[in-house]
Predict the 3D structure of the following.
Amino acid sequence: MKGRMQTELHLQKRSKVSTSFNAFDHLRIVRIRRVKIESPSAKTFVFQDKLCAKAEPGQFIMVWIPGVDEIPLSLSTITPNGRTLITVAEVGETTKTLHERKRGDILGIRGPYGKGFTLTSGNIMIIGGGTGLVPLMPLTNKLVKLSTSLTLLLGAKTKDELLFLDRISQTLSKVDARVVVMTEDGSHGLKGIVTDQAEQKLANEKFDMIYACGPEKMMHKMFLLAERHHTPLQTSLERLMRCAMGLCGSCMIGNLRVCKDGPVLTREQLRTIKKEFGKLKLDFTGRKIAV
Ligand SMILES: Cc1cc2nc3c(=O)[nH]c(=O)nc-3n(C[C@H](O)[C@H](O)[C@H](O)COP(=O)(O)OP(=O)(O)OC[C@H]3O[C@@H](n4cnc5c(N)ncnc54)[C@H](O)[C@@H]3O)c2cc1C
Ligand code: FES
């Protein structure tokens, strides 16, 4: 068991919490049906769960890896029959152990939790970097039916780290969509960072909504651009999570609990956490550290 599980958390001042337990809060044991290697650092795990079928794009589940820890993960595919996909980058102990799991192994899950993306129609921009693309996948599936025009800006450090390119081209094959792929080293698509491309597009075109997910610095840049161009924005934030029910305070940013008020936050909500968004986060001991 990791040390941080025993660590006392310094709870942050927060708004009154009202939480009632329901079926989503019970730990369910699921069996891994398939494992797919997506990139050198990311794998997708497929399992079956009825309650995940009810998830909205952008909601997350808590995944318990027996003997290690429980971590928040977005759903990369949501289906009406409960076939569910999570896509995970290996960054530390828990994700490393999860990457070692094979078909037939078990996981514990609870959720889905949090506020997902609100669907909108019109001229839409979706911008994602790295595993930030995960919650944007089920969102894109829904938006192809709603939007009049869709612009997808996809970024990664290198070609190998680009996720879901096949899935995206399949999803967008029958709709009016523009896709710009960018890598920082220029190994695929355009060379550069996706926010530069977003800046150019926003200077020339009016968008009805921007959906963004990726490294926090990228989302912060999108917030500044959305403010400058008076464009509505929804971003999915990441913070440490323990209870995922709004109780423990480990996911606080300003006065918001990312597990309950988010993870998807609007431009108006981001304005209220300007002092911390893109700058500070809580560590496992409850101290504020640089993002
Ligand atoms: C709502 C939500 C949805 C997420 N969805 C996905 C997803 O779909 N795919 C995916 O690969 N990851 C996702 N994450 C991040 C994932 O939860 C962390 O990568 C994981 O908890 C790391 O655990 P670890 O023990 O392997 O690494 P740790 O040893 O805990 O940490 C390794 C590094 O990752 C950082 N880190 C740890 N937890 C988080 C976190 N929650 N947010 C940001 N940084 C963190 C640490 O600061 C450290 O630098 C999501 C996080 C949240 C809050
Ligand atoms: S309040 Fe516990 S994880 Fe959000």
Observations:
- Residues 3-113 form a domain with the Elongation Factor Tu (Ef-tu); domain 3 fold (CATH 2.40.30.10).
- Confidence is low (pLDDT under 50) at residues 1-16.
- The chain has two domains: 3-113, 117-235.
